[in-house]
Amino acid sequence: MRIRLALLLSLMFLGSGVARTAELALTGAKIYTSPTDPPIENGSMVMREGVIISLGPGSTIKIPKSAMVIDCKGLVVAAGFWNSHVHILTPALLHINDSDEKKLDQELDTMFNRWGFTTVFDIASVLDNTLALRRRIESGELRGPRILTVGEPIWTIPPVYVRDFLRENHIHIENTETPEQAIAMVRDHVAKGANGIKLFTGSDQGRGQVALLPLAAAKAAVDEAHRHGMPVFAHPTNVEGARIAIDSGVSVLAHTIPESPPWTPDFTEQLKRADLSLTPTLTLFDFEARKAHLPDPQRTGFVAQMVDQLRAYSAAGGDILFGTDIGYIDHYDTTMEFTLMSQAGMNYRQILASLTTNPARKFGDSGHSGRIAKGMKADLVILGADPAQDVRAYSKVRFTIRGGQVVYQQR
Fold first, then answer.
1. For position 239, what pLDDT does the model report?
2. pTM beyond 0.90
3. pLDDT at residue 411, as a whole number
C-alpha cells in the first residue's frame, strides 16, 4: 500500500496498541459516504483527533503536511462496519484479566478488525469479563473494536447446545421464570454497564422441544430495559418464540427462525409493525448443518430456507442488521454471509446499510457513526474492491480505521 513510509514506520502499531497519529489523510479513493448518496470519485478526507474534518473531491481537499497519508487509488472507502451479533466467548477472550496484550490483539484482529468491524454488539457473554475487555480497549491498550454488550442472557433454561460449554468453563447463569426475576436481572446489568438485554424467548432443548420464556417475564424485562434506553434482542428458535418477541416489544430478532414455515406477507407485516430489526446470521445455519453432518442437499435446503426468510423481510422493507454469531461459530470470514445476503435479493447498498446506517440508527449512534461526513467519528474501512461490482468486496478489507487510528492493515 502506498503510504508515507517515514510516518508509517514511526506511527504504526506501537507495541500492540493502536496506531497513534494526530492527523490521518486518505487520498484518491472512491468514497461511499452513505448507502444512499452517490459516491465521491477520486475523493480525499482528513481526520484529526478521531474526527473527520474535511471530505470531498481530491482537488478540493488540502492535505496537511503533518498528516500520515494513505494513497487509496483504486480502493474504496466506507464507514466502519458494525457486527450486531457476536459473542465474547472464545477461549482466548474468556479470561481477560489473565491475558496478555499480544494474544488479545491477535484474537481481536482475527475475529473483528480484520473484517472491518469498528463496532460490535456482543449479545451473550460473561458480563464482567466483557466489560474488562472493553476497558482495555478504551484505554488504548488494545486495538479494538468498540464493544457494546448485553452480558448474560435471560432464559428459562439454557439451550442444549451451550450446556457443556457452560459447565466446562464454570459459567453459571440464573434461570428466569417470573417478571420479578427478569426485572432484577435487567437492573443488575444496567448497574454494571451493559448496553442491552438478550432474551431467549425460545430456548432449544433438543428433539424438537423448545422452552419458551413466559410472556409476562419477557414483557417485564423489555419494559425495564426500555426504561433505561436499552435495546432488547431475542433468540426466537420457533414461531412461538418469535410471537413472544413481538408481543413483548423486543427490538431485534437475533436470527431468522429455523423452526418456521415460509414467512408470509402477514407475518412480515407483524414484524414490521413491531419495529423489529433482524440479524439474519445466515452463515450460522450452514455451520450448524455441517456440524450435524447433514447431507449436502439437506444442508443447502436448510440454508435456503433461512435465505428465503431474509428475502421476505427485506423485500417487505424490514430493517436488516448485519450479524454473524462469531464467537459462537468460528467461521470468521464474512464472504459467505455477504454472498447469502445477495442471494436473498439484497443489493450492495442495502447490505452497506445493514453494516452502517441501520445499526447506528437502531442503537442511537447515528449522530456519530454509520456515515462519512465532516464532524463524524473517523471510523472507516478501506476495501480492495468495489462492492457495487461484487458484494464479496465487503470482505476484502485492506485497512480498518477506528477513531482516526489504523487498527488493522492487510499485510
1. 95
2. yes
3. 85
CA dist 306 → 29, 132, 160 (Å): 36, 35, 21
Q: CA-to-CA distance for 232 and 223, rounded, in angstroms?
A: 10
Site of grid cell 447463569? 173
Structure-block grid coordinates of residue 182: 427478569
Report d(CA 49, CA 70) in Å as an integer: 17
For residue 81, what is the enclosing H or E element? strand 81-86
Tell me how long the chain is.
411
Q: What pLDDT, on the 0 to 100 scale, is given for residue 10?
A: 38
Q: How far apart are CA 287 and CA 276, in angstroms?
A: 25
Q: Where are any strands of DSSP class E within 167-287?
A: 197-199, 202-206, 209-212, 232-234, 252-253, 277-278
CA 71 to chain centre: 28
The CA-based dihedral angle spanning residues 284, 365, 199, 247, taken in that order and rounded to the nearest 10 degrees: -110
Q: CA-CA distance, 337 to 115, in Å (whole number)?
A: 12
Long-range contacts of 209-215 (CB under 8 A, 24+ apart): 210/237, 210/238, 210/240, 210/241, 210/259, 211/155, 211/156, 211/157, 212/156, 212/240, 212/241, 212/244, 213/154, 213/155, 213/156, 213/176, 213/241, 213/244, 214/156, 214/177, 214/178, 215/244, 215/247, 215/248
297: exposed, middle or buried (Cβ count in 10 Å: 0-12, 13-18, 19+): exposed
Pairing status of strand 252-253 against strand 232-234: parallel
pLDDT in the model for residue 101: 94
Give the residue ranges of the chain where pLDDT is below 50. Answer: 1-18
Nearest to 321 by CA among 252, 392, 248, 249: 252
**Chain segment 117-155, per-residue pLDDT in tens:** 999 999 999 999 999 999 999 999 999 999 999 999 999
pLDDT of residue 207: 86
Residue 5 has a pLDDT of 39
Q: What pLDDT is attached to residue 7?
A: 41
Q: Which three cell numbers stand for residue 106?
A: 491477535
Domains and CATH numbers, the chain: 2-79+370-409 (2.30.40.10), 81-362 (3.20.20.140)
